[in-house]
Amino acid sequence: MFRTSDKTAAAIIRALERELEAERRVQEQARGLLIQRDLETANARRDLKELNDKVELLITERTQVLSAARDEAVAATRAKSSFLANMSHEIRTPLTSIIGFAELLLDPKGTAAEKSDSATTIIRNGRHLLEVINDILDLSKIETRQLETERIEVALPELLSDIEVLAAGRAKAKSLKFTIVHHLPLPPALSTDPVRLKQILLNFCSNAIKFSSQGEVRVDVRHDLARQHLLFEVSDSGIGISAHQIDRLFKPFAQADVSTTRQFGGTGLGLYISKQLADLLGAEIKVNSKLGKGSCFSVSVPLNRVAKPLEMLTDSRDFEAFHRPAFEVTSIEVPELSGRVLLAEDGVDNQRLLSTYLRQAGLTVDVASNGKEAVAQALSKDYALILMDIQMPLMDGIEATMYLRAEGYPGPIVALTANVMQSDVARYRQCGCDDVLAKPVDRLQFYKVLQRFVDTAQQPDLEEEDEYTRELRALTEEFCAGLPSTLTAISRASEGADWHALKSLIHTLKGTAGSYGYPQITAMAAEVEAQLASGQTETLPTMCATLIRRAVRAIGEPAAL
Q1: Res. 379 pLDDT band, cuts 50 70 90
Q2: Same-domain check for residues 294 and 409
């Protein structure tokens, strides 16, 4: 019995030992898991801390970026607000003279000398206003990437003569000496966009004259043989520019400082536009200036052609043949023409005005109010010329022209349009137009185009010319008299959200106002039309109210409003 009991106890002990060993293994495994979990927790805490540190750093960096962006946006907003205030001044100042002296022209008590002085003042201020508007339009094209250039061969003496004619008079008016220095030898020509190159150089010259009260404005022209560039340097003895101010020169909406705008005027766009134009021409602009010591602006333009040694200009007398007389204001000479013209135009006021221009030149006029009428009349009668408005109801000018050409119509067709960017002009020519006239219509250019396509006739007598002059004046007076009702209709359409009616009213006003001598009304109407086209109608009532106020100020307070 005892032996059996010992064996049983031993078995129990072994069983207990096995159980204890199993528990020890379980405990070791548990301890290992705890250690692993502690290690994982520590790693997770470390990773979390690193992540938190990165997030904090990112937040700090983003905060700094957003703060800088906010400051930049605030500065840009201030610059644009200042620019708009300056634009108001730059536009209103010449308009005040234009309107005031135009009223003096109508004063029967004025002498011939006073009327001549008034007309000259109107033209001078009108040209200044045109420069301001051109700057604004160029800025718009630059920001929408629609500014286009061409490359044609330009004679260097002719280019420099144009610069001298346009700049020397301004310099003389301030008792400044203006000199162009030819560093010979020079190539006879370069291949570039002459309009845009002259725009850059005239901007440099204009600034040099504006910021100089005495001394000289000088243009040095050099040939960079190694790079095959022409270097134009415009230097002055004016107020100069500090290093800090130079950094602001080529930014939009900004001049060197605010006091510059107050003292000297200007849009603050010229140098920015010049820099963008230079980039398009493959040219480089540099400036060297010291405060109080004058400035030198230079532009290096690629020749885009190889000048042979024998072609080089080696004598300053090579430039004398291109000297042109200074431009003088002259009256418009109306040509004497004969024939029948079809005027396709939906604006009633433009119909009457252009018809008067045409009849004044001795032409017979038929009018079509839309593209369908124009097509029907063109195919049923013989016309010396068709003047085709591009935007018309039922069938626009492009569609009408393409239809006529498809039907074999051989006669000349000239487009009438306010959209005259190079891409637009190319499209009109592709559809079959022979030429393009811009709205508002330049009367001198209008007659030049007519003379290209219409036969010359006998000169009308002077009594008939006086009659046409009176008719033009009467048409302008009727436009002003009828404008209040148009503005009232615009106000009602905008307040009633009748966008279809508003579009028709605005389009007609845009096309007619400028032709009667109110380009500011045309410009504002174009803004409203663009907003209508965008489909964003929330701001249209405000824009229309602004248009009405500006139109009222432009022609004087109408009795009907």
Answers
A1: very high
A2: no
Whether 175 and 313 map to the same domain: the answer is: yes
Does residue 531 sit within a domain? yes
Three-state SS for 165-233 is HHHHHHHHHCCCEEEEEECCCECCEEEECHHHHHHHHHHHHHHHHHCCCCCEEEEEEEEECCCCEEEEE
Q: Is residue 124 part of a domain?
A: no
pLDDT, tens digit, for every residue of 434-471? 999 987 777 888 999 999 898 765 444 545 555 666 67
pLDDT number for residue 330: 45
CA dihedral for 424, 430, 435, 439, sign (positive or negative): negative
Cα–chain center distance at 279: 16
Give the span between the Cα atoms of 8 and 10, in whole angstroms. Answer: 5
499 and 392: one domain? no
Q: What is the mean pLDDT of the chain?
A: 81
My answer on whether 197 and 278 are in the same domain is yes
Tell me which residue range forms the domain holding 383. 337-460
Q: Give the model confidence (pLDDT) of 461-506 as tens digits.
A: 545 555 666 677 777 778 888 888 888 899 888 888 888 889 888 8
For the domain that residue 383 is a member of, what is the CATH number? 3.40.50.2300
For residue 60, what is the DSSP state?
H
The pLDDT score that the predictor gives to residue 284 is: 95
- d(C-alpha 436, C-alpha 423), whole Å: 12
- 297 SS3 class: strand
Exposed/middle/buried for residue 43 (C-beta within 10 Å: 0-12, 13-18, 19+) = exposed
Among 414, 434, 460, residue at a domain's last position: 460
